[in-house]
Automatic annotation (TrEMBL):
Keywords: Lipid metabolism, Lyase
Molecular functions per Gene Ontology: enoyl-CoA hydratase activity
Gene3D superfamilies xrefs: 2-enoyl-CoA Hydratase, Chain A, domain 1
Family: Belongs to the enoyl-CoA hydratase/isomerase family.
Group of enzyme by EC: lyase
EC number per UniProt: 4.2.1.17
Organism: Gordonia jacobaea
Protein's UniProt name: Enoyl-CoA hydratase
Pfam families associated with the record: ECH_1
Amino acid sequence: MPITSTRSASGVTTITVDYPPVNALPSAAWFELADAILAAGDDLDTHAVVLRAEGRGFNAGVDIKEMQATEGFDALIAANHGCAAAFSAVYDCKVPVIVAVNGFCVGGGIGLVGNADVIVASEGAVFGLPEVDRGALGAATHLARLVPQHMMRTLYYTASNVTAEQLLHFGSVYKVVPADELDATALDVAEQIAAKDTRVIRAAKSAINHIDPVDVKASYRLEQGYTFELNLAGVADEHRDAFVATGKPKTTQGSR
């Protein structure tokens, strides 16, 4: 199954995403992932959650091919609502969520990671938002939780990536380890949390969310409004069609 959950005797629920070849998720999968994360947190026998992925990378965002193969805006709306649900689920999960990032984390993956409690990554893993190259916006809210403000703007406007090692320097990534140690490292952090009194940890998660200076859900929803505008103007379709056809971003000179 593409999204699976297992719970250890110590109370760590591991949720694994597996959508070959690059873990670009169709709209339905975002809702499924949200349900799995929330269900884990609602289970009192779960003390911590590890979110990981199989394959070449952690997450490549939404499945643009699915979106472009669907008439009208239904797939776009579903993808946007699905992403919002999954990002919120990580944030609202009643226990800490530890993400194990292998290879790459781009697009919607940034929304998952930016809302997580602990991030561990494999050496050389990259993080980024190619949204402007797809004629869309979104997840600047979450990227801003990973890097300083001006770095976020630079990465966003240029659709450039930042490495796990750079994020370790900024303090947003907890550990960077060889790929073959990634799962064990994430599990070790989760086990440390799971060994605490889960009543206290659940209260701590709620308290930390309540003192957060940014309402991540409202902020992301505002970003999505601009994405909808770009779609209505036809701009987003131009960029997505170009990406589906060539695998490369569309460049536009002198656009108005």
